[in-house]
Amino acid sequence: MLMLLVVLSAAQRTPIQRTPKFQWGQGQPQELEKALADYNNISTEDRAALLHAFAREYNDYPTPPSPMERAEQTRVKFIDLNGDGAPEVIAQPIGDICGAANCPLYVFQKIGTNYRAVLRKGAAQTVTVQRTRTNSYLDVVVGMHGSATEEALFVYQFSEGRYRRTHCYNESFAELGKDGEIHEHESPRITPCQQ
Question: Strands 137-145 and 150-159, how do they pair?
């Protein structure tokens, strides 16, 4: 009986770890040029390749601005997700393509002299890089703002050359009580998404 409880307890745990979330400040966009200028190990060629990779991904967005203008306004964060010494690029375009504090989100990886998207999410607010790895890549949790009291969490793990969504959870910060008032939880409640 004790063994069954241990197995059930382990099965109910979420694969989400409490690591710091990465989120750009609302209304304070981090411009691409400044972000790239602050990063010492990127060359002029890599900068051009990254801009072109962004613009390729943004071709389907309504214009104006043009895909290249949108690329130049993309927020970026460099982080080595696979431990090879060459950082991947977390990128988020801004502007009219965002809604309810959610903007498209990408992770780019350098392959040869070019960059390619290994994760695409149509709407996201936060990114949490986990301590766990799948196929040598750190797992990533993307948070999407749902309401003032809830966030959807999507777990991505690396497989077959890209990040794939493997789990979905709802994170609740408060709930409506029987008294009609909103009551905040002491700590967020994370439950699996209903399929």
Answer: antiparallel
